[in-house]
């Protein structure tokens, strides 16, 4: 290590230093070959230095991203040690390197903050087993080597396209809305990368003590955060923070760091190595749950590095309004920023179920995520408009855009005041048709919107969130407690509990072990539940027990055949009887519904007459299956249109079938959140619309303004003879019959 330290400290040409390094490593590791591969921009791996292979192969031999053992190490971000490499299935022979006589192979990833930037390899002629200490040593060397290899990227990088001049309009970006609202302020760039000040320990015992003290301070700071800030968050965000706290107290993580110190690294370098490994695994992970856990670990690594460096500070939130810009964000980091005051949050890499997104909703801060190129387009101090009503970001807006934003903020305030006056009034059309406007919820904090909006009840309570934010399956008592709390807070208003909708993009790692080519059409929702009857029955038992003698409404998701519904209903009926036998209680009224999310079920509804109490159209999945267009894929999202002749004819057919079968009709999903869609559903006879809390006021105001009978006649005529601008055609009919639609 001392010799390597000297090479690192020397000045000189990067490539000549690499040649020194491979000779030094080969000698130190008693290896016949030492080679360094650099990961190029296209993902391929180029041999850039070697001791033991043919020198003429340098800068010529290139492995594909998925080729050979070197590609395997880069792809998995994990070390691999093989006694006889040519026999391994992933081995790829390159004759120009002259590696024929070498058998034993040890490869480790060269990791930097951005992920895997190369691979370090040693080989031996004889077949041998590399010891764990040798693997550990090579990983440590690779960490130090990363700084030299990174300089090759800097030397080779072409000049970057000139960024837009600050002060000029920087254009717009689009993303997914995580928390609705409007915000404006100066950009504060979140950069969690904290470089290690030094690599090697001068005094191992002292470094071990520093690390132990740092861990103690880290855990104490998170415990204080839970005590002070956690109570105000609501149950699900608090669960997120509790899982984060448990990671901080995880002894296996602490022991991994101490092992690094025992190998000769400084406390900072040991944490830095763990951070690089977590980041590389995060980039390779497809499982959303695993990605969130790895990101939380990376966040802990960075917090610990700041403590060890004596600097726990963040980029400063100024007295002005600030918008936080981040690639990814940990829940604890967001809490710290929020205490200083934020007008908006923008994230490049995030899902609506991410821990940061859950906390953002709890705090009520306008937030948009999944924004491509966010951190390359925005600079520190840029003015930014966060339009979390339309999912847009305006960078360095000019005066015209800013004036339009101020006007929208003023209008939003005026409208909110108007909507507040409607809170106690029914959603009744001018000609006397009354609809129920219900709330979509999934978190405890969502239920605050019941009283704020005057919603008639909860039309969709997503029960899977309790499972997704926990490291383990929720206990029966925990589920009973949550469902009972929801019913208590509804205070007699109806609540529709949707049973577990897991699978697809909502993966439960404890049970979802399969990798599917198309998870949206795979093993999910009711299919998953019926294949895990123990898990499903426990949830049904919790729902029945929580209801006691109160009414209970349960809805099964993504049913495609009558047989699936009947199998699920039989399990629910069994749990009702089981509860009655043991407690003497059963729900005073049990209503069982089904979600229409697949076109197949629409043609089986008549078979369920007398068995299903109500049907709820789940527009999010139904429309993407109907149009074969993923609503989250920008290139086809414009084909995902509810106000179109085909979709409305289909929904009208469903309504007519349900009316004949005596099945009550409702709708839940994002498509219900616009007044124009609400008019169409009401015209077809859908009596209950469930939506986000922010949509209830606008939809209620619009419904109270329209003559529904006149609109119905005009809509049916338009469906018979649609024109090319069908949405505008329907909008014109609505306005003709008195509709007051904001921004129409």
Short account of what is shown:
Helix content is 45%, strand content 16%. The chain has 744 residues and is of the alpha/beta class. Helix 6 (235-248) packs across helix 11.
Keywords:
16% strand, 8-stranded mixed beta sheet, 23 strands, elongated, 8-stranded parallel barrel, 26 helices, single chain, 744 residues, alpha/beta
Largest sheet: 8 strands, mixed
Shape: elongated
Rounded to an integer in angstroms, the radius of gyration calculated over CA atoms is 30 Å
Measured between the Cα atoms of the first and last residue, the distance is 70 Å
* Helix content class: 40-55%
Portion of residues in beta strands equals 15-25%
Structure description:
With 744 residues, the chain is of the alpha/beta class. 45% of the residues lie in helices and 16% in strands. It contains 26 helices and 23 strands. The protein has an eight-stranded mixed β-sheet with strand order 7-14-13-9-10-11-12-8. The chain has an eight-stranded parallel beta barrel with strand order 16-17-18-19-20-21-22-23, surrounded by seven helices. Strands 3-2-1-6-5-4 form a six-stranded antiparallel β-sheet. The protein is elongated, with a radius of gyration of 30 Å. It starts with a helix and ends in an 8-residue tail after the last helix. The model is unreliable at 157-169 (pLDDT under 50).
């Amino acid at each position: 290590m001392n010799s390597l330290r000297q090479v690192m400290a020397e000045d000189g040409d990067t490539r000549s230093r690499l040649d020194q390094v491979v000779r030094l490593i080969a000698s130190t590791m008693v290896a016949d070959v030492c080679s360094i591969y650099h990961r190029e921009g296209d993902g391929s791996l180029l041999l850039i230095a070697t001791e033991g292979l043919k020198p003429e192969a340098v800068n010529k031999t290139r492995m594909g991203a998925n080729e050979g053992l070197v590609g395997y190490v880069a792809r998995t971000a994990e070390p691999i040690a093989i006694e006889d490499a040519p026999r391994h299935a992933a081995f790829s022979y390159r004759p120009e390197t002259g590696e024929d006589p070498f058998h034993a192979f040890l490869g480790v990833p060269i990791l930097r903050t951005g992920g895997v930037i190369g691979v370090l390899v040693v080989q031996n002629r004889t077949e041998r087993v590399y010891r764990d200490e040798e693997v550990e040593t090579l990983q440590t060397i690779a960490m130090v080597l990363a700084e030299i290899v990174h300089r090759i990227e800097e030397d080779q990088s072409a000049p970057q396209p000139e960024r837009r001049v600050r002060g000029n309009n920087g254009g717009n970006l689009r993303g997914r809305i995580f928390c609705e609202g409007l915000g404006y302020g100066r950009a504060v760039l979140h950069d969690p990368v904290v470089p290690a000040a030094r690599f090697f320990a001068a005094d191992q015992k002292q470094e071990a003590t520093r690390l132990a003290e740092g861990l103690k301070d880290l855990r104490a700071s998170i415990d204080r955060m839970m005590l002070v800030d956690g109570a105000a968050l609501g149950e699900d965000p608090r669960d997120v923070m509790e899982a984060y706290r448990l990671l901080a107290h995880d002894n296996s993580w602490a022991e991994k760091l101490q092992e690094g110190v025992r190998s000769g690294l400084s406390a900072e370098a040991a944490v830095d190595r763990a951070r690089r490994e977590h980041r590389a695994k995060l980039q390779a992970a497809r499982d959303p749950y695993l990605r969130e856990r790895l990101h939380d670990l990376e966040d802990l690594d960075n917090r610990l590095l700041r403590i060890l460096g004596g600097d726990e500070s963040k980029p400063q939130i100024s007295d002005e309004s600030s918008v936080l810009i981040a690639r990814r964000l940990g829940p604890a980091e967001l809490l710290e920023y929020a205490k200083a005051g934020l007008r908006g949050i923008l994230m490049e890499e995030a899902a609506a179920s991410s821990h940061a997104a859950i906390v953002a909703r709890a705090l009520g801060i306008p937030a948009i995520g999944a924004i491509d190129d966010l951190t390359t387009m925005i600079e520190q101090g840029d003015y930014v408009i966060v339009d979390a009503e339309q999912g847009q970001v305006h960078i360095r807006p000019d005066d015209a855009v800013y004036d339009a934003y101020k006007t929208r903020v003023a209008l939003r305030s005026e409208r909110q005041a108007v909507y507040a006056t409607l809170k106690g009034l029914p959603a009744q059309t001018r000609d006397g048709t009354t609809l129920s406007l219900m709330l979509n919820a999934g978190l405890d904090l969502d239920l605050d919107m019941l009283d704020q909006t005057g919603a008639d009840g909860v039309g969709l309570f997503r029960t899977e969130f309790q499972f997704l934010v926990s490291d383990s399956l929720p206990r029966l008592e925990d589920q009973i407690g949550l469902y009972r709390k929801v019913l208590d807070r509804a205070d007699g208003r109806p609540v529709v509990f949707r049973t577990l909708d897991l699978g697809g993009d909502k993966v439960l790692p404890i049970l979802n072990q399969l990798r599917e080519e198309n998870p949206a059409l795979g093993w999910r929702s009711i299919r998953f539940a019926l294949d895990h009857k123990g898990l499903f029955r426990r949830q049904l038992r919790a729902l029945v027990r929580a209801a006691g003698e109160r009414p209970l409404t349960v809805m099964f998701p993504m049913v495609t055949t009558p047989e699936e519904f009947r199998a699920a209903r039989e399990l629910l009926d069994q749990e009702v009887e089981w509860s009655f036998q043991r407690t003497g209680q059963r729900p005073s009224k049990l209503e069982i519904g089904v979600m229409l999310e697949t076109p197949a079920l629409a043609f089986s509804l008549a078979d369920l007459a007398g068995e299903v109490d109500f049907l709820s159209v789940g527009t999010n999945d139904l429309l993407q299956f109907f149009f074969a267009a993923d609503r989250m894929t920008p290139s086809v999202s414009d084909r995902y249109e509810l106000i179109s002749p085909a979709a409305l004819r289909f929904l009208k057919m469903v309504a007519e079938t349900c009316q004949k079968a005596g099945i009550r009709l409702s709708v839940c999903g994002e498509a219900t959140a616009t007044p124009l869609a609400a008019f169409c559903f009401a015209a077809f006879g859908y009596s209950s619309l469930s939506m986000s809390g922010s949509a209830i006021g606008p939809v209620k105001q619009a419904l109270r303004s329209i003559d529904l009978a006149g609109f119905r006649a005009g809509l049916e005529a338009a469906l018979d003879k649609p024109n090319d601008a069908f949405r505008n055609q329907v909008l014109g009919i609505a306005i003709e019959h008195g509709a007051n639609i904001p921004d129409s």
